[in-house]
Design goal:
Layout lengths: L15 E5 L9 E7 L2 E7 L17 H5 L9 E3 L8 E3 L2 H19 L4 E5 L6 H4 L2 H9 L3 E3 L5 H11 L15 E5 L3 H4 L4 H9 L3 E5 L5 H4 L3 E3 L6 H14 L5 H7 E2 L1 H9 L3 H8 L3 H13 L3 E5 L9 H8 L2 H5 L8 E3 L10 H5 L9 E3 L3 H6 L12 E5 L3 H4 L3 H8 L5 E6 L11 E4 L8 E2 L7 E5 L12 H11 L11 H9 L11 H7 L1 E3 L21 E2 L3 H5 L19 H6 L2 E4 L15 H4 L5 E4 L1 H6 L7 E6 L2 E9 L7 E3 L36 E6 L2
Parallel strand pairs: 6-15, 7-14, 8-9, 8-12, 9-10, 11-21, 12-13, 15-16, 16-17, 22-26, 23-25
Antiparallel strand pairs: 1-2, 2-3, 4-5, 4-17, 18-19, 19-20, 22-27, 23-26, 24-25, 24-27
Helix pairs in contact: 5-14, 9-11, 9-12, 9-13, 9-14, 12-13
The structure holds ligand MGD (2 copies) and molybdenum atom.
């Protein structure tokens, strides 16, 4: 089993340990942790890392406060009161493992192993603590599989349909860019290490424009804010292409050589003159024309889309449509040009060796955003046995999953056996039968990828585990042994797993070796700086070209050409619903939180209450005054907050900075009490921001 191997001193005199930020963020920072007498005393960004550039974000600057928090879980806890009563008693690991493995065996015997559901996401993005021994364990016992769709699947598939993979432009090319569109992304909050590169572009003369229904802190820093209606980005991109083709601003040579379906695209965009897009997007027609000209005349426009804009019914199509733009104008040819949704598909670790999908029998797959349905339907929602055991790690579904009412009804089932691996007693842990204490990034090994740059980070443990906490990998190793799994793959320790992940024949992984990672803490993938993935085509679509026309989309029964797909809850499409619930709720991250992580950190929550930002016109119509307590509701549920009245939201839009721990909110609810389990057009993703509500003052 894995003993924590403490690292040697990295720097003469000071015990500084090289690590990696584990959180779900494109920046995947490299860190330096100072350790004195076995205690971590400082964490900082690696000054030598070209993307981290020596600074950390508001949240991870508090990582030590989080690690040494008074509420850290330090022993296994067994439920001793009724479900959800939050009554637990400490127990030994031996008792915990004995009871959990016995319960799982009984459940398998009664209903088959598919009645066990793993539930995890990106509490840590580490490959070892996130997707290695856990996957082997669930594959070996034959548990149901989980489709991990909650964040990025709509956009990822959108990129795959157009350019072939979720591989986009390199942020380090930004200094060469002459126009930057921050499109549906709150860079300063969600991707702050891109910002220095944006500033370089700006210093070199680029205009920086934010396209967002909210004037976020990022939009505030841009040259311009374009206040688009939520869920309408596809229409804007189509109208831009309309103008570009109409005015001859396209790059015919690039189109000819590297794209498929240009004639059909030209025909399609004729259907989207700026006047039509104005009706859909709410952006004045002149502004759309001007934006198209700015884009068409630029030499290397950098379009940063992130995941915010794809959380609507047509999220996949919107990303696919925007991803057509750089091919139309040929900007993929130049540093600083192109679209970036992600860089993740460049990281070609040997995931099959880590996860061993080959040992899984054919089993059903459950979509994680439909957890409510999965727990409540007698057949898990997809056919087969009911879900009888839920094993949660790296996720807090009672706060983050859509349609919370339904999720909670499921978690409250007396006949559901729930195990939660956690650092803290989260909203989800409250419903557990067993809570198992997990280590944090300072206490275990890991290796990471990034979805915003091209460097592989290694994380070395800096301190001993707190109390009896164990790494996820170790907990699954121990469970595997108790379940009678004797194959040597269940004994691989974390360092062995890291080595296996690095055994990749892929060209981009050349030079990414364990020794190099140990020495520097991070290694750039084997790609040039900046990396121009499509400078001479080489798209990984079936045709090898940018697919304006997609046969695969057609086969899925979808429009093979870019189009505007309205939100499910687009007011003009659902007038009766909109009469009752006229406002669109966006519940994107609060600056100081990382999804629901850090909400329990005093210095980050600062006694704040959940807030609801409302436009002055909408506030006046409802007689809402600043500071009032309001309830936000629809037919799915409600939550409350304190009102801020501001024209930083578009009229018709409300913003509830998220994702609150419900037990730290006065009413025990959060924005996901109002969100739905519906799926996006591509990738079966969530539609968190496709959500009509009404806001009213609480008397
Ligand atoms: N501080 C902090 N950083 C984070 C996170 C966090 O919780 N906190 N979460 C991390 C995770 S998991 C992710 S996936 C990324 C997400 O990173 P982003 O995608 O940047 O984050 P979001 O805040 O979800 O969405 C960004 C913006 O999209 C806008 N938006 C919503 N709907 C639309 C639309 O239809 N069109 C347009 N144009 N804009 C729209 C929102 O108003 C918001 O300002 O950030 C990561 N980084
Ligand atoms: N309304 C609304 N809902 C949303 C979103 C939104 O914008 N609005 N955003 C969505 C998005 S983009 C995402 S990615 C999801 C995020 O959903 P989750 O991936 O569930 O993210 P977190 O809420 O941060 O919860 C992660 C949990 O993992 C735990 N954890 C961290 N490291 C470890 C570890 O090493 N071991 C174990 N056992 N546990 C660990 C943390 O303590 C934390 O409680 O939420 C989604 N939900
Ligand atoms: Mo996410």
């Amino acid at each position: 089993m894995t003993a924590i191997q403490m690292p040697d001193q990295d720097h003469a005199g000071a015990n500084v340990v090289r690590g990696a930020c584990p959180h779900d963020c494109p920046d995947a920072c490299s860190t330096l942790v100072t350790v004195e007498n076995g205690r971590a005393t400082r964490i900082q960004g690696d000054p030598d890392h070209p993307f981290t550039q020596g600074f950390l974000c508001a949240k991870v600057n508090r990582y030590l406060e989080r690690t040494y928090h008074r509420d850290r879980l330090t022993t296994p806890l067994r439920r001793v009161g009724p479900k959800g009563s939050r009554q637990f008693a400490p127990a030994s690991w031996d008792d915990a493992l004995t009871d959990i493995s016995a319960r799982l065996r009984t459940i398998v015997a009664a209903n088959g192993a598919e009645s066990i559901l793993p539930y995890s996401y990106a509490g840590t993005m580490g490959l070892i603590q996130g997707s290695s021994m856990d996957r082997r364990f669930f594959h070996a016992i034959g548990a149901s599989k989980l489709d991990r769709t909650i964040c990025s699947s709509a956009g990822s598939v959108g990129m795959q349909m157009t350019v072939g993979a979720n591989v986009g432009a390199d942020g380090e090319g930004l200094p060469s860019s002459d126009l930057v569109l921050l499109w549906g992304t709150n860079t300063l909050t969600a991707n702050p290490h891109l910002w220095p590169h944006v500033l370089e572009a700006k210093a070199n003369g680029a205009k920086v424009i934010a396209i967002d229904p909210i004037r976020t802190r990022t939009a505030d820093q841009c040259d311009e804010w374009i206040a688009i209606r939520p869920g309408t980005d596809g229409a804007l991109a189509l109208a831009m292409m309309h103008v570009i083709f109409a005015e001859g601003l396209q790059d015919d040579n690039y189109i000819e050589r590297y794209t498929l379906g240009a004639d059909q695209l030209r025909e399609r965009v004729k259907e989207y003159p700026p006047s039509r897009a104005t009706q859909i997007t709410g952006i004045p027609s002149e502004r759309i024309v001007e934006l198209a000209r700015q884009y068409g005349r630029a030499k290397a426009a950098f379009v940063r889309i992130n995941y915010g804009l794809q959380r609507h019914a047509g999220g996949g199509m919107a990303v696919r449509t925007i991803a057509c733009l750089p091919a139309v104008v040929g900007h993929w040819r130049r540093a600083g040009g192109g679209v970036q949704l992600s860089t993740s598909a460049n990281f070609q670790f040997d995931k099959k060796a880590l996860e061993r999908p080959d040992i899984s029998p054919p089993v059903r797959t459950i979509n994680m955003i439909r957890l409510g349905e999965a727990l409540n339907a007698p057949d898990g929602g997809v056919g087969g046995p009911p879900v009888q055991a839920l094993i949660v790690y790296n996720s807090n579904p009672a706060a983050v999953a859509p349609d919370r009412t339904s999720v909670l009804r499921g978690l409250a089932r007396d006949d559901l056996f729930t195990v939660v691996l956690e650092h803290f007693q989260t909203d989800t842990a409250d419903w557990a039968d067993w809570i198992l204490p997990a280590t944090t990034q300072l206490e275990h090994w890991d290796i990471h990828f990034s979805y915003g740059h091209h460097y592989v980070p290694l994380n070395r443990p800096a301190i001993q585990p707190m109390g009896e906490a164990k790494p996820n990998s170790e907990i699954f190793r121990l469970l595997a042994a108790r379940m009678g799994l004797t194959d040597p793959m269940f004994a691989d320790d974390d360092l062995a797993l890291i080595h296996q992940a690095l055994e990749s024949p892929h060209e981009k992984m050349k030079g990414v070796t364990f020794d190099a990672l140990m020495e520097r803490g991070w290694v750039r993938l084997n790609v040039p700086t900046p990396y121009l993935p499509y400078v001479d085509g080489a798209f990984s679509t079936p045709s090898g070209k940018v697919e304006f026309y997609s046969e695969r989309m057609k086969q899925m029964g979808l429009d093979p050409l870019p189009a505007f797909t309205p939100p499910y809850e687009f007011p003009e499409m659902v007038p009766e619903l909109a009469a009752r619930y006229p406002l669109t709720l966006i519940s994107s991250p609060r600056h100081q939180f990382l999804n629901s992580t850090f909400v329990n950190i005093d210095s980050l929550r600062r006694n704040a209450e959940p807030e609801v930002m409302v436009h002055p016109v909408d506030a006046e119509r409802r007689g809402i005054s600043a500071g009032a307590r309001v309830v936000v509701r629809n037919d799915r549920g409600h939550f409350s907050g304190v009102v801020r009245i501001s024209d930083a939201v578009r009229e018709g839009v409300v913003w509830a900075p998220s994702i609150w721990w419900t037990k730290l909110a006065a009413d025990g609810a959060n924005a996901n009490d109002t969100t739905s389990q519906r799926e996006t057009d591509l990738g079966h993703g969530p539609v968190f921001y496709d959500n009509l509500v009404e806001v009213s003052v609480i008397d």
